[in-house]
Design brief:
Layout: H1 5-13, H2 17-24, H3 39-47, H4 52-63, H5 69-98, H6 112-134, H7 142-150, H8 157-175, H9 179-190, H10 199-204, H11 213-238, H12 242-249, H13 260-270, H14 273-295, H15 327-383
Helix pairs in contact: 3-14, 4-14, 5-6, 5-13, 5-14, 6-8, 6-9, 6-11, 7-11, 8-9, 8-12, 8-13, 8-14, 9-11
Length: 402
């Protein structure tokens, strides 16, 4: 698994076909795709200028085990690794069908339509899992599923390109414009038995809510239902058909005239669009957090009162040496001193508790502010307006952002 942002970007630079295919989706997500394969370039895209301090902070944020970014990237990477296995199964089945003497092998290879249906549903859940991690909602539930799926409509840039690729390559191309209904029908037909035929399901089943295959199967069906209105809206808005998609993408695969389902499987086998766009999604989130933390002035919290006597030092007054007649006065002074020190310790403990409470409130306020800034950035990128302008960048004056 990827351990640093620089390693993740280095892997992007090795990809050739994936950026070309994603760029070809401009007919459904015009102007959204930009192939960025360098962290400093992405910092410039997000912040409006190259900033080594922000890049350094983003690297630190990514490797922080208390943050969700490595886990989110692992989800995107797992999807593509398993997807290439699944695509191999479909291509193998097509090869068996092309040669009559291999027909006996069909009983040993999963049905392509079952594999494609389950994989499409699991990919959607994987997207929701990763999105939830990045938004601070690591635990999926049936109750929160509708809200997470509704966020698909707010996607922009590489996020929007990724979900468009899911609609086009995994949905419309092999299964037709009514792919959501087709997958729902297939899942109902095969039940939990079809889940075992999916390499993606085997890799990601632990992330899907449910204690059994039956419960996980139900969650997949519910996830599709949550995204159905949005997906069907995309098909209608862009007039998507299998023929149109095939025409746009056929140039990238040799022998694609064998059929749309072959083309879809070949694209799945030869591209890594989930990992490629997911890397940019995670890196952008790290950069946005880095901008907040680098630019955010550290507020000094009020400490202990200046007049609170230190409890680690003795303030024992000098003993009066005036004879035995003052011994009782000295003892009373000693009692008073001990009482004052006890009271000072109690006040100091109360001050420490108050300071901890203030720090906790401060951190919670900063977390909420960061979440609100992220939400506004998504809205700005989607609407092409706001303080970052049409490309979602900060407007700065003079040099560094103030």
């Amino acid at each position: 698994m990827t351990t640093t942002l620089d390693q993740a970007f280095a892997e992007l630079g090795e990809s050739r076909l994936t950026p070309l295919v994603l760029n070809a989706l401009d007919f459904i997500v015009p102007g959204e795709w930009e192939d960025i394969t360098d962290l400093d370039d992405l910092v410039e895209d997000v912040a409006g200028e190259r900033d080594p301090m922000v890049a350094k902070k983003a690297r630190e944020i990514f490797i922080d085990p208390n943050r969700p970014y490595q886990r989110a990237l692992q989800v995107y990477q797992l999807v593509d690794r398993a997807d290439q296995v699944a695509a191999g199964v479909v291509l193998a089945n097509k090869a068996v069908g092309a040669f009559e003497f291999l027909s006996f092998l069909k009983k040993f290879t999963p049905q392509p339509d079952t594999v494609q249906a389950v994989d499409l549903a699991v990919k959607l859940v994987a997207e929701i899992v990763a999105f939830g991690l990045l938004e601070g909602r690591p635990e999926l539930s049936r109750e929160g599923l509708a809200d997470l799926a509704a966020d698909l409509g707010d996607y922009a840039k590489q996020d929007r390109v990724r979900i468009a690729a899911w609609v086009v390559i995994d949905g419309v191309l092999p299964l037709g414009p009514d792919f959501i209904q087709a997958v729902q029908a297939k899942l109902a037909e095969v039940g939990t038995g079809g889940l075992g035929e999916s390499a993606i399901y085997k890799k990601l089943s632990s992330m899907i809510p449910g204690d059994s295959d039956e419960e996980k199967h139900g969650f997949l069906v519910q996830a599709l239902g949550s995204a159905q209105a949005w997906a069907e809206g995309q098909v209608t808005e862009h007039g998507l058909t299998t023929e149109l998609v095939q025409e746009k993408l056929v140039a990238f695969v040799e022998g694609a005239d064998a059929g749309a389902d072959y083309l879809a499987a070949a694209l799945d086998a030869s591209t890594s669009y989930f990992r490629h766009t997911g890397t940019l999604t995670v890196a952008r989130a790290c950069i946005e957090d880095a901008l907040d933390e680098v630019d955010e002035p550290e507020e000094e919290l009020v400490g202990l009162p200046d007049d609170a006597p230190p409890w680690h030092r003795s303030h024992r007054p000098a003993k009066r040496q005036r004879g035995d007649e003052d011994r009782m006065d000295d003892e009373r002074d000693e009692v008073d001193r001990l009482e004052r020190e006890r009271a000072a310790r109690m006040r100091a403990e109360q001050d420490r508790q108050e300071l901890r409470r203030m720090r906790a409130e401060h951190e919670e306020r900063r977390r909420e502010e960061r979440q609100e800034r992220k939400r506004r950035r998504r809205e700005d990128r989607k609407g092409g307006s706001g303080p970052r302008g049409p490309r979602g960048r900060h407007r700065r004056r003079g040099g560094r952002r103030r």
